[in-house]
Amino acid sequence: MLKEKRRATSFRLPTYLIDGLKLEAKRQNTSMNSLVELLLREDLYSEPNEETRAAIEECRSGVELPELDTSDLDAFIKSIEQ
């Protein structure tokens, strides 16, 4: 497997983002650099499936959906299982 060429760069980020990245990298037992690379790769190169794209378009269209009646939890669960 060929190693990808890498180039150093720098970014100015708010402190809270840097702190969050450090905490998440520690939680995942990885470096902050590896975490940022993973997050960028996932965001830049992941394509939503057709169902997700349709849902995104539906949300963007501004169509008002009927309000769900969640007062009866069992009936609500049955309605979404179909």
In words, what does this structure look like?
The chain has a domain at 12-61. The termini are far apart. It is an all-alpha fold and 82 residues long. The protein has 4 helices and no strands. The chain has helices spanning 15-27, 32-45, 50-61, 73-81. 59% of the residues lie in helices and 0% in strands.
Summarize the structure.
By secondary structure, the protein is an all-alpha fold. The protein has helices at 15-27, 32-45, 50-61, 73-81.
Shape: elongated
Strand content: under 5%
Q: Major β-sheet, in short? A: none
Q: Please give the radius of gyration in angstroms.
A: 21 Å
Mean pLDDT: 89
User: What fraction, in percent, of the residue positions are helical?
Assistant: 55-70%
| Classification by helices and strands | mainly alpha
Provide the succession of SSEs. HHHH
Distance between the termini: 46 Å
Number of strands: 0
Low-confidence stretches: none
- Number of helix segments? 4
Describe the secondary structure blueprint for this structure.
Blueprint: H1 15-27, H2 32-45, H3 50-61, H4 73-81
Provide key terms for this protein.
0% strand; mainly alpha; elongated; single chain; 4 helices; 82 residues
